[in-house]
Amino acid sequence: MRMNINGGKTLNLANKITIARIFLVPVILFFLLVRFDLGSLAISDMNISYAQIIAVLIFIIAASTDGLDGYIARKNQLVTNLGKLLDPLADKLLVASVLIALVEMDKLSALVAIVIISREFAVTGLRQIALLEGKVVAASQWGKWKTATQITMIIVILLNNFPFELIHLPFDLIISWVAAIITLYSGIDYFVKNKSLIPVE
């Protein structure tokens, strides 16, 4: 099935990349939450399980496709309604699932996860309202910083705060709260700049 900007039916390359990102989520969760011992990598006085290392590598691959699918769709004029729906869903599903797993693993404050996940779905809802009205909520600079800090936070936490643990710097804790604050602020920024989309009556 193929979809194009004019409504034809195809499953184009951009959509395939987006769907692949969604299918990588349970794979990441498998390595994070299923209890099995693959051993661990010892670095100085710290250890990182190979399961977490594998999860980090898959997460980086999945996160790196964020933006790639959109770029391919725009470049080849293959923007579809399916892509508009799946792309933000895939992004949010990836981040939210890993955050919940980190809470389950007792590596992340539930409050941080709640703040980030709530913001993500609130802004996704705003974008869907905009699409229904034929408008586009453009990505802001704060939104880009939000994404960067979230990805950095997840990677550092999954690597057990490596390499900062070697110098006893709690960077994982610091970046968690920085990510939460920037995420919250960027969400407020989106709603303030697009308040015309929100019915007041």
UniProtKB/TrEMBL annotation:
Q: Decide whether keyword Nucleus is in the record.
A: no
Q: Which PROSITE patterns match?
A: CDP_ALCOHOL_P_TRANSF
- List the catalysed reactions: a CDP-1,2-diacyl-sn-glycerol + sn-glycerol 3-phosphate = a 1,2-diacyl-sn-glycero-3-phospho-(1'-sn-glycero-3'-phosphate) + CMP + H(+)
Keyword annotations for this protein, in alphabetical order, are: Cell membrane, Lipid biosynthesis, Lipid metabolism, Membrane, Phospholipid biosynthesis, Phospholipid metabolism, Transferase, Transmembrane, Transmembrane helix
**Any one GO molecular-function label of the UniProt entry:** CDP-diacylglycerol-glycerol-3-phosphate 3-phosphatidyltransferase activity
- GO terms for biological process, alphabetical: glycerophospholipid biosynthetic process
How does the record classify its membrane topology?
Multi-pass membrane protein
Source domain of life: Bacteria
Q: InterPro entries, per this entry? A: CDP-alcohol_PTase-I, CDP-OH_P_trans, CDP-OH_PTrfase_TM_dom, CDP_ALCOHOL_P_TRANSF_CS, Phosphatidylglycerol_P_synth
TM segments? 20-38, 50-73, 93-117, 174-192
Q: Give the metabolic or biological pathway.
A: Lipid metabolism; Phospholipid metabolism; phosphatidylglycerol biosynthesis; phosphatidylglycerol from CDP-diacylglycerol: step 1/2
Q: What does this protein do?
A: This protein catalyzes the committed step to the synthesis of the acidic phospholipids.
State the name under which the record lists this protein.
CDP-diacylglycerol--glycerol-3-phosphate 3-phosphatidyltransferase
